[in-house]
Amino acid sequence: MNQLNEELADHSPTHLAASDDQLAGKVRLVLAQGRHAPVALKHYRAGRVGSDEVAQYVSYDLTGNTDSAERLTFIVEQVVAQLEMEEATTW
Q1: What is the reported pTM?
Q2: Distance between CA atoms of 37 and 42, rounded to whole angstroms?
Q3: DSSP state of 22
Q4: What is the CA radius of gyration of the chain?
Q5: Upper half-sphere CA count for residue 77 (Cβ side, 13 Å)
Q6: Among 21, 29, 38, 64, fewest CB within 10 Å belongs to which?
Q7: What is the pLDDT of residues 19-32, one digit of tens each?
Q8: Domain-by-domain residue ranges, the chain?
Q9: Non-local CB neighbours of 81 within 8 Å, separated by 6+ positions
């Protein structure tokens, strides 16, 4: 968890310059262990917010601002769909 906090505190734009696979991995990690994104994911799953709002919190956790939220929306949707499929297969 300390490593994640250090990565998130870095605020470097390289987080969003990564390939889509690398970025999806970072999104997945932030959705699980970030400061704000896990709460947004819970609200999304409950139907209270949309994927665009989850992307805003993912962007904030990754970079300290929401400037990249629009680019992240599609990746967030893909990662959330993948998580839901994985959870469905474990039941």
Answers
A1: 0.76
A2: 9
A3: H
A4: 12
A5: 8
A6: 21
A7: 778 999 999 999 99
A8: 2-90
A9: none
